[in-house]
């Protein structure tokens, strides 16, 4: 019998059974398809030697007038501006205390109790202490006068932190000299809490069984940001709007928008901030409206309310006949989920609808029109603008917009939406990788509370891919030459990576790389067949050595006799760039081919590959 060529259809299809998808690929990890053929994705390396604290949630790149390239990074705890190799903390200040904070220590403990009336801090907040004197022993002035993270909040007037030294019997108080404290804005959570009730606030808040409102102090921390010229506007979802002046330097912090010179009726809270690209209005989605007398902001979010500043003036928000400041309240839906800049318009999603916002000039400034009801957005960052249009995920499917809405046919839809933790949908974020015509979404699988999986769509070749990878935010190439992404370990140490660099996981082997076919019949599938030989067709493209001792992959052949029978691994054999054939003895009616990285071989470092048309030798082997 002639050799049987195994050239499978591109993309992953998990909508049916493995057998019903005969001739296609059924599963993969860290694999992309390019020109119909599967290959290993690009690698990643650390973008800087510096680290940040907690989980990255948003990245934004821009260039100042002198050509300096900046990268803004919003995290669960802080906001950083990255200049070169260094993370600069520009997190805004919430409150200060002067000569009003005293300390108490316990012999043999590094835990210090600070007393500050109505401090407003929550567990995890950061406070910088100054002006303190020694407590008499190991807790010296130098130990106290630095930045600390709040460990607990026993009362509204006290909090604790862990000092860099352990108190001894001589440490008792601060000697009667009250110290200063500078409090950064309250930190957010790493997980989303979908409703009020016990457990939805920070640890220790309220009484057992009490109900707490969902606000900026007890919710998943998500950032939006947009550059205003060479300066930066940032907003922690549900909290304040802040402005960082680039000319003041990276050693200065962002300040409240209301603190700008000439600030007039600026919003104090919002769900998202954006600067329109053509007309340079600052736009706040889910802003607090003006009070009845229109003399001040209410301070409470209206989740369907949009406000915008005067043109070219981030500080002026009072609607007047002589300016273009204004506001509008949407009607379809219950809350604005997210917005994105598109081609000559801004698209705004509520939980049930899509709006288009277009600059039209005076007297109305913006025209806001309902595009569609019935299609929402699963999370604030689950939408992305790409060269192929705007793509987003709602609770049941994937969509694109290029002037009209289209639902994307998806060959992994049931796989994704049956294994997604909908409670953590606000962690979902969309990403684009223009160099490979890919758009995708990172999400939490069903039992996970941190992102662990992704789904990718090639919008040119119309194929889908899946895999497992922990990333918390992403920025495509543009201002910087490579895509950037963040991840965080269990110690809350965050790393910024450059992606599509090399072929490895930061100089280590990229593990669990594989692509696996659906079941295919041996012969006609009615009689037993014997596979005696595999002839691989692999192009190794990594930077490791080639040859018999160089780059290595495993070919795994699995077999079964009926679709309902468990697969049995019949052979696993390594393949190098000079392997001409793999001799086997496999007998069955159906088979599955899996090609995977060889994690036990040190040569896997520097290995990359592209899979062609593998052939197998099949001969009849009886009916039973």
Concise account of the structure shown:
The protein is an all-beta fold and 624 residues long. 1% of the residues lie in helices and 43% in strands.
Describe the structure.
This protein is mainly β and 624 residues long. Helices cover 1% and strands 43% of the residues. The strands form twelve sheets. Strands 2, 3, 42, 43, 46, 47 and 49 form a seven-stranded mixed beta sheet that branches. It has a seven-stranded antiparallel beta sheet with strand order 15-14-18-12-13-17-16, with no helix packed on it. Strands 6, 7, 39, 40 and 41 form a five-stranded antiparallel beta sheet that branches. The longest helix has 5 residues. It is globular and about 90 Å long. About 4% of the residues have low confidence.
- Classify the secondary structure makeup into a structural class: mainly beta
Number of strands: 51
Model regions low in confidence, pLDDT < 50 over at least 5 residues = 196-217
Number of helical regions: 2
Please report the distance between the alpha carbons of the first and last residues: 20 Å
Integer-rounded radius of gyration:
29 Å
Largest sheet: 7 strands, mixed
Strand content: 35-45%
Mean pLDDT: 92
Could you give the topology of this structure?
Layout: E1 4-6, E2 9-12, E3 24-29, E4 31-34, E5 37-40, E6 44-46, E7 52-53, E8 56-63, E9 69-75, E10 79-83, E11 86-89, E12 93-105, E13 111-115, E14 126-130, H1 141-144, E15 147-149, E16 152-155, E17 158-162, E18 179-184, E19 223-228, E20 231-236, E21 241-244, E22 255-256, E23 272-275, E24 282-285, E25 305-308, E26 326-329, E27 336-342, E28 345-350, E29 353-361, E30 365-373, E31 383-386, E32 389-393, E33 398-401, E34 405-407, H2 413-417, E35 429-433, E36 438-443, E37 453-458, E38 463-468, E39 473-475, E40 484-488, E41 493-499, E42 514-517, E43 520-521, E44 529-535, E45 538-540, E46 553-560, E47 568-575, E48 582-588, E49 590-597, E50 609-611, E51 614-620
Parallel strand pairs: 2-3
Antiparallel strand pairs: 1-51, 3-42, 4-5, 6-41, 7-41, 8-9, 9-10, 10-11, 12-13, 12-18, 13-17, 14-15, 14-18, 16-17, 19-20, 20-21, 21-22, 23-24, 24-25, 25-26, 27-28, 28-29, 29-30, 31-32, 32-33, 33-34, 35-36, 36-37, 37-38, 39-40, 40-41, 42-49, 43-49, 44-48, 44-51, 45-50, 46-47, 46-49
């Amino acid at each position: 019998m002639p050799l049987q060529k195994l050239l499978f259809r591109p993309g992953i299809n998990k909508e049916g059974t493995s057998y019903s998808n005969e001739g296609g690929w059924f599963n993969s990890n860290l694999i992309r398809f390019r020109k119909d053929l599967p290959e290993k994705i690009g690698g990643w390396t650390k973008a800087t030697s510096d680290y940040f604290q907690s989980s990255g949630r948003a990245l934004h790149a821009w260039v100042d007038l002198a050509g300096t390239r900046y990268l803004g990074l919003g995290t669960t705890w802080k906001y950083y501006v990255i200049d070169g190799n260094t993370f600069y903390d520009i997190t805004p200040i919430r409150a200060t205390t002067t000569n009003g904070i005293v300390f108490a220590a316990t012999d043999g403990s590094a835990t210090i109790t600070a007393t500050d009336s109505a401090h407003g801090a929550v567990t995890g907040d950061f406070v910088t202490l100054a002006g303190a004197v020694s407590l008499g022993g190991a807790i010296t002035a130098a130990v106290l006068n630095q930045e600390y993270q709040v460990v607990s909040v026993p009362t509204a007037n006290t909090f604790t932190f862990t000092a860099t030294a352990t108190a001894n019997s001589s440490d008792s108080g601060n000697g009667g000299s009250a110290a200063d404290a500078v409090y950064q804005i309250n930190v957010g959570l790493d997980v989303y809490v979908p409703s009020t009730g016990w457990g939805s606030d920070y640890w220790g808040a309220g009484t057992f069984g009490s109900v707490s409102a969902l606000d900026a102090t007890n919710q998943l921390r998500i950032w939006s940001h947009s550059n205003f010229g060479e300066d930066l506007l940032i907003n922690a979802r549900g909290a304040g709007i802040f402005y960082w002046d680039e000319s003041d330097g990276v050693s200065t912090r962002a300040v409240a928008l209301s603190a700008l010179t000439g600030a007039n009726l600026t919003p104090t809270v919002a769900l998202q901030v954006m600067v329109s690209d053509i007309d340079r209005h600052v736009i706040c989605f889910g802003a607090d409206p003006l009070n009845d007398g229109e003399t001040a902001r209410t301070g409470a979010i209206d989740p369907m309310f949009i406000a915008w500043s005067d043109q070219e003036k981030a500080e002026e928000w009072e609607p007047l006949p002589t300016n273009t400041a204004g506001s509008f309240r949407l009607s379809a839906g219950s809350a604005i989920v997210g917005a994105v800049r598109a081609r000559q318009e801004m698209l705004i999603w509520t939980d049930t609808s899509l709006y288009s916002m277009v600059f039209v000039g005076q007297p109305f400034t913006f025209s806001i029109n309902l595009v569609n009801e019935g299609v929402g957005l699963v999370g604030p960052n689950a939408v992305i603008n790409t060269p192929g249009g705007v793509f987003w995920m709602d609770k049941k499917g994937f969509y694109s917009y290029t002037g009209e809405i289209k639902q994307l046919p998806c060959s992994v839809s049931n796989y994704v939406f049956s294994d997604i933790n909908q409670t953590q949908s606000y962690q979902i974020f969309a990403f684009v990788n223009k160099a490979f015509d890919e758009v995708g979404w990172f999400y939490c699988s069903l039992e996970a509370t941190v992102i662990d999986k992704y789904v990718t769509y090639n919008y040119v070749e119309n194929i889908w891919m899946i895999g497992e990878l922990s990333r918390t935010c992403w920025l495509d190439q543009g201002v910087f030459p490579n895509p950037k992404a963040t991840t965080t370990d269990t110690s809350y140490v965050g790393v910024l990576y450059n992606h599509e660099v090399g072929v490895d996981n930061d100089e280590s082997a990229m593990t669990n790389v594989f692509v696996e076919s659906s079941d295919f019949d041996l012969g006609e599938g009615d009689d037993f067949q014997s596979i005696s030989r595999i002839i691989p067709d692999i192009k190794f493209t990594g930077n490791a050595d080639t040859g018999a001792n160089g780059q290595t992959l495993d070919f795994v052949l699995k077999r079964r006799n009926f679709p309902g029978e468990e697969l049995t691994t019949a052979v696993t054999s390594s393949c190098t760039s000079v392997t001409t054939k793999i001799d086997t003895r496999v007998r069955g009616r159906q088979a599955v081919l899996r090609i995977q990285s060889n994690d036990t071989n040190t040569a896997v470092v520097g290995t990359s590959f592209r899979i062609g048309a593998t052939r197998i030798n099949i001969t009849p082997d009886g009916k039973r």
